[in-house]
Each structure stands twice: as C-alpha cells, then as structure tokens.
Amino acid sequence: MNSSINSLYENAIKDFNSRISSTGALVSYSGSKTGRSPKDKRFAMNNKSNDIWWGDVNMPIDQDFYTKCLDLAKSYIEPHTVNTITSKINPASTGIWNKDGTFNKEIFDKLTKNFILLGDKKIITKQMFWDHLEERHKGQQLGNACHVYMFIPVSWRKVTEGSINDLFKYFSDTTYKNEPAFTIDRLFEFYTNPNKCMNERVKNNSLK
C-alpha cells in the first residue's frame, strides 16, 4: 500500500534536507549535473527494438551488456535509495518521534522545559533544538546518512540541521529576536497533528 501524501511530507522534512515550497509542494534538489544527455542514450537490441531508427542518438548495445550495466547500476544505487535510507533511524535526530513513528511526549517535555516566557507565550527557539541535540548526543560522531553522487558524504547531523531549519521556516507561529520561533502549543500540535499544520500551510498559501 502506498504511503499517504501527508506521511511522505512528514518523512521528507523529518529525515531529509527537503523543502516545502511557497505553494505547499515538496521540493527535493537532484543536483546541477543530472540533466539529460541524449548522446549517452543506448537501446538494448532485442525483438522489441528491431524497428528502432538507429543513428547518432539511438545507438544499440547487446542485451547481455545491458543486463550487466543494469546490475552494476543497481548495486551502486540500492544503498542510497529513499526506501533504504528511510528504513534507517537517524542517530542525530532530536528524538521526538519513537522508532515506530509515534510521538514521544517524554522527550518533547525535555525539549520544552526551558521555554522563554514572552508575555503570555511560552517560546521555543531553534537554538533550544540544537542545545537539546547536543545534550542527547554529547558530541558523538554520528556518521553519514548517505552519499551524493556515491562519494560526497551527507552527515546525519546535516540532515537534522536541514529538518530543523525547515520546521522553523515553514511552521513556526511567532518570532523571538526577529527569528522564527514556536509557541509550545503550536510545536505540540505539529508533532501530534502534522497533517493539520501542513493543510493549514497549503490553505494559507493558496489565499495569498
């Protein structure tokens, strides 16, 4: 069964350096060198491709060579696919979700215990997230989540940084010292009812 749209959004902004656009669309950047290269295109020669117009663009390779290339490509890609990476637990996460994806109230309370009182608002800042992260992991080397182009490492800490930045950029409901911030109530709502927060964001953008 396919995941719901809301579930895909949650996982993308929680564990990957993805973005939500001003229209509410989920944005992931594939890199600057991932465009089409027509002259590198090849077709495997078999009964289905006999009638292809062969030439400078449609160039043939034999079926055995195609199969070997396909197997090699799969061996490179498989460790870096979304399914493979999302099956891993982010060791650098703030830990507000349990391993099964449910909300962890105990960790949430630890994160929010040192709130800033601003008028009648209890404020949580981005720095509090980072302080909480450092307290949980105490400077441990937490390794890499994946590699871009198979050799450029992307650390778990960088993945978490992107998630926290996006959380404050797109879903915060107040400011503190001219920076995006959360009230405790809003942050609690995001973690316990993220679908509602995402739907509100999409609705608000459509009204602009």
UniProtKB/TrEMBL annotation:
Got a GO cellular component term for this one? cytosol
Q: Which SUPFAM superfamilies match?
A: PEP carboxykinase N-terminal domain
Keyword tags: Decarboxylase, Gluconeogenesis, Lyase
Quote one Gene Ontology molecular function term.
Answer: ATP binding
Any GO BP:
gluconeogenesis
Gene3D superfamilies documented for this protein? Phosphoenolpyruvate Carboxykinase, domain 1
- Protein name listed in UniProt: Phosphoenolpyruvate carboxykinase (ATP)
Name the source organism: marine sediment metagenome
